Amino acid sequence: MKRTLTTLCVVATALIVSGCSALGGTLIGAAAGAGVGSAVTSGSTAGAVGGAAVGGVIGHEIGE
């Protein structure tokens, strides 16, 4: 059940991010990082927060 929920969250995040062309690299990176961080840590909140932070930094640096 946990794996199914995590998969659904990752898919929903990917769909939301792909539909928002006005979002900057930082926001897209943060959303993608949160999804990946949560999936890698089996749905952990800390993994989602850490992934969002790392994804936001990477998205910001790529955008510059």
TrEMBL record:
Keyword field contains RNA-binding: no
Key words of the record: Signal
InterPro entries, sorted: Gly_zipper_2TM_dom
Organism from which the protein derives: Nitrogeniibacter mangrovi
Gene Ontology CC annotations of this record: outer membrane
Signal peptide annotation: 1-22
Lineage: Bacteria, Pseudomonadati, Pseudomonadota, Betaproteobacteria, Rhodocyclales
Protein name: Glycine zipper 2TM domain-containing protein
Limits of the Glycine zipper 2TM domain: 24-63
Pfam families given in the database record: Rick_17kDa_Anti
